[in-house]
UniProtKB/TrEMBL annotation:
<keyword id="KW-0732">Signal</keyword>
<protein>
    <submittedName>
        <fullName>LptA, protein essential for LPS transport across the periplasm</fullName>
    </submittedName>
</protein>
<dbReference type="GO" id="GO:0001530">
    <property type="term" value="F:lipopolysaccharide binding"/>
</dbReference>
<dbReference type="Pfam" id="PF03968">
    <property type="entry name" value="LptD_N"/>
</dbReference>
<keyword id="KW-0574">Periplasm</keyword>
<dbReference type="GO" id="GO:0017089">
    <property type="term" value="F:glycolipid transfer activity"/>
</dbReference>
<dbReference type="GO" id="GO:0030288">
    <property type="term" value="C:outer membrane-bounded periplasmic space"/>
</dbReference>
<keyword id="KW-0813">Transport</keyword>
<dbReference type="InterPro" id="IPR014340">
    <property type="entry name" value="LptA"/>
</dbReference>
<dbReference type="GO" id="GO:0015920">
    <property type="term" value="P:lipopolysaccharide transport"/>
</dbReference>
<feature type="signal peptide">
    <location>
        <begin position="1"/>
        <end position="22"/>
    </location>
</feature>
<dbReference type="GO" id="GO:0009279">
    <property type="term" value="C:cell outer membrane"/>
</dbReference>
<feature type="domain" description="Organic solvent tolerance-like N-terminal">
    <location>
        <begin position="33"/>
        <end position="156"/>
    </location>
</feature>
<dbReference type="InterPro" id="IPR052037">
    <property type="entry name" value="LPS_export_LptA"/>
</dbReference>
<dbReference type="InterPro" id="IPR005653">
    <property type="entry name" value="OstA-like_N"/>
</dbReference>
Amino acid sequence: MSQYRPALYLALLTALAGNAGALPGDSEQPITIRTDEAIRDETRGKTLYRGDVEFRQGSLLIRADEVTLVERARTAARPGSRDPLAGTGVLNIEARGAPAYLTQQFTAEGEPVQARARVVEYFQPRALVRLRNAARIRQGNMTLHAAQVDYYIDKQVIRAFSNPATGRRVTTSIPPERLPGD
């Protein structure tokens, strides 16, 4: 079975990345943040949200104990970008929780991707979402568990990393109906 692991892992990553690219119109939706407390530092373009934070834009939903949002002046989105936050002025997002959750619907007919980790980060200049510390991703019956998962939005590339310090490896589960045919 071990000789098939790379193929199974690739099948899951292809299935997840193939569905990636937010719903059309997500990037044109307003960002709504609900929280118990917000602290804005205008000089740094940084806002800290604490206490049951809910960050929403279109089908993107982030829930966390604490979210730090760094902004800059709005810029035009790159043509063809699949990044739902491109052009919004959001530079970085860091969500922390026990765990923090991220959910997004990528196609109208598909199942949403549900992810969780202790830290969820978004780096707009690189169109990168990073899940750190006990990352778990689920779409339908497919799951991926890793110490860290990087998702490059525009490239539609997912990289998952093990944790050598604990010996925990990347674990992927693909239901039989999603396996490549013979």
